[in-house]
Amino acid sequence: MAQPRFFCPLPWIHQFIEPNGIKYCCSSNEKIITTPIDFAKSEYINLVKDTIRNGRIPSGCHACVKQEQRGLLNTRTLALRDWPYTIDTVPDHIEYLDLRYNNNCNFSCRTCEPAYSTQIARENMLYPELQKYYTSTADSTDVNVIDAIQSFTNLKRINFTGGEPLLIKENFVILEHLIAQNRTDVQLLITTNASVINTKMIRLFKQFKDVHWTISLDGVEAVAEYIRHGTVWATVNNNVRQILNLKQSVSINCTVSAYSILDLSNLVKYYLDLKQEYNNQPFEIMFSVVQFPARLAPTSLPLELKDRALDQLNISISLLTNILSNPELYLNTLKHLQQNIKSVILDTSKEFLQFTNELDQIRQQNFNLTFNI
Q1: CA 101 → CA 98, 140, 227, 251, 347, distances in Å?
Q2: What is the pLDDT of residues 7-64, one digit of tens each?
Q3: Dist CA 330 CA 251 (whole Å)
């Protein structure tokens, strides 16, 4: 069969399991409330596959298409890098599970949603004026992940997210089940805020052959504590080093928002200092640019802060340019964002400023003081 104009392997091999539904990838805006096993054979997912086979783009894939048109890194790009299948070779069985079935989390990050954080869900209940900003709720259904793992015998990768995966007790059960079934060849990805070190879970992780840590950091020191509310920087910094001391593969992932872009170079410098100290192991920095919600996109900053954002990008790009071990695609993400910000003419910051002011009052924080504006 000829390769269709648009192709992504994720509808065939992947499930993104949330507390209130399942999607075929994180970027899709379509979800079904069902079990992982039933989702894999549903009419919905079969229709998505047929749409791609027929050379059309499924409606749930439009977010990636828009990001590609703007030169930004996106879920489809990463999927094709990690799973280099074609329409003729892609297997029709689940190989990759992204587990976000539990929103238990001790942080309330400004770019997050109630569906992924119990702290945001609680804050949302206490302050109803915030509800207009969120598209998701904390409503949850029972997801039997163990049944799915038993059924998906071709599983090659599991991404433990959340919530905060090191706080989710059910993850112990999953790890212990895989070990008991002698499936320690499944690649484990752990996406953590580095707020806690769970020694029991780490002992289980060590029994697997391929483990990768993604540490979510959007800034350092006071900026980290402002953006990712709940952060105690001294604790996070210490835990980052404990993770690096495991000598496993590690990445820092920065969600580049209208907040984090204003101090981006200090995060890059922090990464480079750590990289120099831990120079004998895989250690990268990645950048994911906020597109939704639009109020938090870097292009939604007030125009008077545009030059500062560009300066931060210039410094960060310069610092990372000669780091050959860091993937070029992440550097290109910053370069494309630079061009997008330069092209901004209209001030679309009204909702960003409104959201920021309301949250500052509730959390007793101060945007201007934090970023020295």
Answers
A1: 9, 8, 24, 23, 37
A2: 999 999 999 998 888 999 988 989 999 999 999 999 999 999 999 999 899 999 988 8
A3: 12
Which of 215, 301, 289 is CA-nearest to residue 255? Answer: 289
CA distance 51 to 7: 10
Q: Give me the amino acid identity at 153.
A: T
What residue spans of 41-95 are helical by DSSP H?
Answer: 43-53, 62-69, 75-82
Least confident of 104-113, 127-136, 241-250, 262-271: 127-136
**Helix (H) or strand (E) segment spanning residue 11:** helix 10-13
**What's the distance, Cα to Cα, between the start and end of the chain in Å?**
57
With CA atoms as reference, report the closest residue to 236 among 296, 164, 297: 164
Q: What value, to the nearest 5°, has the Cα angle with vertex 322 and ends 321 and 323?
A: 95
Residues 85-130 pLDDT 10s: 999 999 999 999 999 999 999 999 999 999 899 999 999 999 999 9
SS3 208: coil
Q: Are 80 and 350 in contact (CB under 8 A)?
A: no
C-alpha torsion sign, points 172, 175, 177, 180: negative
Q: Could you tell me if 110 and 134 are in contact, meaning their C-beta atoms sit under 8 angstroms apart?
A: no
E strands present in 161-308: 187-192, 211-216, 228-229, 249-256, 283-289
Greatest alpha-carbon pair distance for the chain in Å reads 59
User: Which residues partner with 216 through β-bridges?
Assistant: 253
